[in-house]
Amino acid sequence: MMIDILTNNFVSFLLIFLRIIAMFFSAPILSDNSIPVFVKIVLALFMSYVLLISLNINTPLASLNFTYLTISALKEIIVGLAIGFFMQLIFWGISYGASLIGFDLGLSMATVFNPNLEISGDVVSTLFYILAMLTFLLINGHIFLFTALHESFKLIPPTELKISDSTAQELIIQSANVFIIAVKIASPIMVTFFLMNIAEGIMSRIIPQMQVFFVLYPLRIGVGFLLITTTMIFFFYVIKELLKLHETNLIKFIRVLG
Question: Fewest beta carbons less than 10 Å away: which of 45, 119, 155, 257?
Fold first, then answer.
């Protein structure tokens, strides 16, 4: 009897650990390579122990065969990755919106290395990504991630993941929101440059001898950076509200998984 209890607790602990460590390698901030893998593993082990005790998680084990344990482990990894992936969506949307701004500014070829995403992106995209990360920390988004993880074990106990049509539909809807977020971020600058393009077209028709593109190109960059600077408070507010809304959607998404 004692061996069965210990075995049950060990398997439950392992399943909890797999969900947590999967989220650590996919969620914003936590997946950053500046955090050593050893630290992630130790923190995941500690959290697994705390959750096992505090939530009194006791996974009913129908059998301890290899197939059952493998499927259960895959379920927990999927849940952890799904939570992290879901939170990353908004940052991808913000980065994409900033890339649209950089394209209008003519700075899409001016790239810098983004240490968080480990890719080269334009300077505007990297700037907005860092702004989004700082905003995420300011509104205690990192704490919310742990809260959401805690709630996930209440809504989706180990081995209880259910993938249905509603799950796929919700994931598709939230993935499509990446483009909506991008438009919300880029729309003020895009509208301004659209009007500038119309003005450039009119000027090129009125004064065909004038090289409008070469004359006004430096002006476009100056106006773009002026708009970004003057509307930075607006961008901060929009990003903050988008993050709060996304946090609410994450809890809904976890409920769908359960």
Answer: 119
Whole-angstrom distance, CA of residue 71 vs CA of residue 187: 45
Q: What tokens were used for 48?
A: 């697994």
Quick one: which of 160, 177, 7, 184 has its CA closest to 71? Answer: 160
CB 105 within 8 A of CB 221: yes
Per DSSP, 28 falls in state T
Distance CA 128, CA 227 (A): 14
Say what angle helices 212-230 and 165-206 make with each other, to 10 degrees. 130
Q: What is the pLDDT of residues 162-220, one digit of tens each?
A: 777 777 888 888 888 888 888 888 888 888 888 887 877 787 777 776 676 677 777 77
Residues 6+ apart with CB under 8 A from 115: 32, 33, 34
- pTM for the model stands at 0.80
d(Cα 10, Cα 49) in Å, to the nearest integer?
Answer: 10
Which tokens sit at 55? 């939530």
Alpha-carbon distance 46 to 40, whole Å?
A: 10
Listed residue (101, 48, 103, 116) closest to 229, CA to CA: 101
CA proximity to 178, closest of 89, 85, 252: 89
Radius of gyration from C-alpha coordinates of the chain = 24
Count of beta carbons in the 10 Å neighbourhood of residue 25: 15
What would the pLDDT profile of 96-110 be if each residue is shown by its tens digit?
888 888 877 776 665
Break the chain into its structural domains and give their ranges.
77-257
Give the Cα separation of 24 and 172 in Å (integer).
Answer: 23
